[in-house]
Structure formats: C-alpha cells, structure tokens
Amino acid sequence: MLLRKIFVTVALIAGIGSAAIAETFPSRPIMLVVPLGAGGAMDVIIRTMGPKLTEILGQPIVVENKTGGGTVTAAQYVAKSASADGYTLLVAPSGTLTTNAVLYKTLPYDPIHDFIPIALYTKVPFVLVVNSALPINNIPDLVRYAKGGNTLSYASTGTGAVPHLATELLKSALGIEMTHVPYRGAPPALTDVLAGHVQLTFADPSIAPPMLKDGKVRALGVSSLTRIGIMPDVPPLADAGVPGFEAVSWHMVVAPAGTPPDVVEKLHAAFKAVGKMPEIQDKLVSMGLIPVDTPAVPELRKFLGSEMVKWRRQVEKAGIAGSM
Q1: Which domain, by its residues, includes 58?
Q2: Helices (H), the chain
Q3: Residue 62: CATH number of its domain
Q4: Domains held by the chain: number
Q5: Same domain for 254 and 294?
Q6: Which residues contact 302 (CB under 8 A, 6 or more apart)?
Q7: Count of other CB atoms within 10 angstroms of residue 161
Q8: % of the chain exceeding 70 in pLDDT
Q9: Which among 203, 219, 239 is the end of a domain?
C-alpha cells in the first residue's frame, strides 16, 4: 500500500495528473490474474475477452493463472503488488471478495480496502437437482418430503462455497433440515447425487443438462432470478415456491487500491464495451452463465458491500465463520 501511494504521489509531484496518466495508458501489456485453473469457465471467458480488450486498449492482454489457497494466493499477489497502475488486475469470483473475509481466521488482504472494482461481467447461477428416484418433482414436494420424517442430505463443492451457502439459504427459507456433505468440486458432488448417496445439490448448469436429459436427476429450479439460456424450461426458484430466492456467484475484475481514477474509468469502459459484444454474451450463455452489463464503479462498490453483508450473515448462520 505504501509503494502504491508513493507511485501516485511521485506522479503528481512530476506534474503528471490522473488524466494525463490515463491519456498514455496503456503503454504496455496488461496482466489479468486468474485465481482458478486453466480451462475452467472463468479462464475460458477471460481468454475469449482478451483479444477484444486488446482491440480497444491497443495493448496485449496477458492471462496468468495463479492458483492456490482458495483464490487467496492470487488476491494477495494483486493486492500487494508494488504499483497500482492498472497493469495488473485480478479476476475475482464472488467468494474472494465476500465470504473469504469471514471464512478465514486471518486473511492477507482486505476485500474492500485493497481493491477498486472495475467491472462485473457475469453472474454464475446454479440448478437445484434431486435424484430422480425420489418422489420430489417440485419445491412443495421437497418440503413435504423433508417434513414427512425422511432424511435428506445435500452435496456441495466444499464448505463455504456458494452451493453450500445457497442450500443453507434454501433450508432457512423453506424451514426444512438437510445434512451437508462437502465434496472437492462439482463433478464428484453431482456423481454422488446420481448414485443416490446424497439426495440433492446445487449443480453447475454447464454439466447438469446431459443428466437431466437422461432422466438421472430432476431439476427443481435455478438459483438466479431469471431463467438461463441452456435450460430455458427450468424456472427460477423464486418463481417455483421460494419467493425472492437468489443465490449466485459472479466474476468481477478489480484493480489494486490506489490505481488512478481515470485509469480505472478507462478500464471500466473497455470491459463494459467488450461485455456488450454479442459473441461474448453468446459465449457466456452457452456456458450456463448470465451476461451482466456492468454498473458504474460507485454502484459496484455498493454491490460489493451488500453482497458481503448477505453472505456474511449466511456464513455465520451456518456456523462456519473462521473455519479456514
């Protein structure tokens, strides 16, 4: 943080104001640090957006996958980078900027104070699926089954992950009990639902459709407030018996705190323009994601604050605060 302040101070002393810095920005490649592995949805989308960003900004976009620590490694790297000049950005899933702050006993970065939001370009919904052998075709059936003396367990992609917290939110909204069974990722969680070892899960919509088509699992609803493109016949849970329900992850590009405001605005404008391109939106939809026309930076700050409050409450209610 001290080095960032020195960078901005020296620039101002030299007579280089924020607008002047932005005028020459960018003059070299921009690095986008992705905290998840190559080939995943986040990586694929960012690499698809890269050439379009290059067309607008006039400089190469370099994607670096820096995995480890539940996205903490990448977040710390960008938050503590020597210069907040717009050339090193973090592509963050929602947990990096919200739930990590309450899940980790100590966190080497501050999600609110160490970053400036640049763009929110997609929401990541989930589809609630149940083993097809169960007499559960909709949310009222689920409530009756749970309250009828039957034992229910649900799979998640790990303690504190959105599918875990989404199911806890669902339990609270419906007034039912289910036992949590965490897995290391989405495929093994869905596999055990198919096998009947657990009864339901919030599944990744990009891998669920083949199982739905084969009748191996049954979809009760999606966790977003709107339907999603690759399964248009599945209603939002908010319209299927759980009013107001929304539990989605999202991807946001952020810069280190201290990045000059005009550089932030230039980056924001570039991501906003790319996010509106039909080919980018089509790619997002094809992967089960929801395109977002990014709000302005001040609105993104408010969004982050509200998301942190929402998920902090859920983490505390689930009794998993400080569990990592």
Answers
A1: 2-123+249-317
A2: 2-13, 18-24, 41-57, 72-79, 94-97, 100-103, 139-146, 162-174, 186-195, 209-213, 261-275, 278-286, 297-317
A3: 3.40.190.150
A4: 2
A5: yes
A6: none
A7: 22
A8: 93
A9: 239
Mean pLDDT of 56-80: 94
> Which amino acid, 236?
P
Nearest to 63 by CA among 73, 54, 72, 71: 54
Cα 89 from Cα 96, distance rounded (Å): 14
In tens, the pLDDT along 268-322 reads: 999 999 999 999 999 999 999 999 999 999 999 999 999 999 888 888 888 888 7
- Is position 82 within any domain? yes
Contact indicator for 132, 218 with CB cutoff of 8 Å:
yes
pTM of the model: 0.87
Q: Identify whether residues 136 and 198 lie together within a single domain.
A: yes
Residues 106 and 138 in one domain: no
Is residue 323 one of the residues assigned to a domain? no
Q: What are 182's strand-pairing partners?
A: 156
Same domain? For 133 and 114 the reply is no
Q: What is the pLDDT of residue 16?
A: 52
Q: How does the average pLDDT of the chain come out, rounded? A: 91
Q: How far apart are CA 53 and CA 147, in angstroms?
A: 52
Q: Is residue 95 part of a domain?
A: yes
Per the model's pLDDT, the better-predicted residue between 22 and 151 turns out to be 151
Q: Are residues 30 and 176 in the same domain?
A: no
Residues with Cβ within 8 Å of 41's Cβ and at least 6 positions away in sequence, in order, are 124, 206, 287, 289
Q: Which of 239, 273, 291 is the last residue of a domain?
A: 239
Residues 6+ apart with CB under 8 A from 115: 78, 79, 90, 92, 97, 109, 254, 255, 256, 257
- What is the CATH classification number for the domain harbouring 150? 3.40.190.10
Confidence of residue 21 (pLDDT cuts 50, 70, 90): low
* 34-53: burial string, b at 16+ Cβ within 10 Å, e else: bbbeeeebbbebbebbbebb
What pLDDT score does 14 carry?
41
pLDDT at position 5, please? 45
**Reduced to 3 states, what is the DSSP secondary structure of residue 255?**
strand
